[in-house]
Amino acid sequence: MSGNALNVESNRSISPEMQRMNPAEDSNWNTLLAAHPKRSFFHTAEWAKVLTETYGYTPVYFRAGGADGSASWLPLMEVDSWLTGRRGISLPFTDDCEPLCSDAGTFQNIFRDAVEFGRLRRWKYIECRGGRELFYEVPASLSFYGHSMDLTAREDELFARLDSSVRRAIRKAERAGVTVEVSQSQEAVEVFYGLQCRTRKKHGLPPQPLTFFLNIHRHILSHNMGMVILARYQGRPVAGSVYFNFGDKAIYKFGASDETHQDLRGGNLVMWTAIKECVRRGAKRLDLGRTSMGNEGLRKFKLGWGTAERNIEYVKFDLRKNEFVTGLDDTSGWHTRVFHRMPGLLSRAVGAALYRHWA
What we know:
Layout: E1 19-21, H1 29-34, H2 45-55, E2 58-59, E3 61-64, E4 72-74, E5 77-81, E6 85-90, H3 104-120, E7 125-129, E8 142-150, H4 155-161, H5 164-175, E9 179-183, H6 186-202, H7 210-219, E10 226-233, E11 236-246, E12 249-257, H8 266-280, E13 285-292, H9 296-303, E14 308-318, E15 323-325, H10 334-341, H11 344-358
Parallel strand pairs: 6-7, 12-13
Antiparallel strand pairs: 1-3, 2-5, 3-4, 5-6, 7-14, 8-13, 8-14, 9-10, 10-11, 11-12, 14-15
Helix pairs in contact: 2-7, 5-8, 6-7
């Protein structure tokens, strides 16, 4: 490891100045968070509540500094699984959740305390999903593409930035009579979940449990921090997406469609509707999440919306080996072939049983 790499000391006591917090139990959490320039929806108390109530994870958010936006945070969830072991993840089911820290020196102290806490708890490893620049020259465990849109322009200017094929697809959906609705209702969540189950099966992945999406409705959508957008053709749902928002930033989190109506381009109309709705809600940026390096089709789709591309790099510290390690993107493989062939009801049951272990 390079001499410039983050140095993790062993046999070091946890700093008394460091706070370990649970955002789900702190009514002032989001107010403090809003002052931090790098904050995102995934740092909020609402996302922590969804993860803890759905999967039983334990929030261990490390905090150092004052009682304002100058404080630094490392959000972690303890995943305690008899199947995959106990570890700290920042954060489960989150595409990009970099530590909120303005300088690497402060972050070193926070991360060292997290390592010592992890040793006391017998964690296998700590994984940070974003913020590799804070670790100096340690290797990335996984790398993805990230894409985001600047929404600070007029509607006609935003439309003009889209790739010509995207603009044609939007117009095609409109001419075909596809209608779009923006909702925060539980009914809309349940309709989306039906589309999600079809899409996950197509890609050879089990869907997350319905309780996960019902908790998203309870803690996020019902608090006006997100929305479901559904496209329908002749009354039948053909595409849908779920978006979250916090402050002036919005995130595209889930997308699904009925592949038998793919030619209607309902998904394109959903995204364009979301862009306009995000602007109406005051968002200045829309993040489109992570994309696997090998998924050129999805990468091309996101670039077609006039996005800026960046790298999202994860970092994993193995507490047993006492070193930073690399890994493999396991979004595809033998398991995708199995789940692709699995009956829908069985796939849902497997997903409900396994997701809390995968994290």
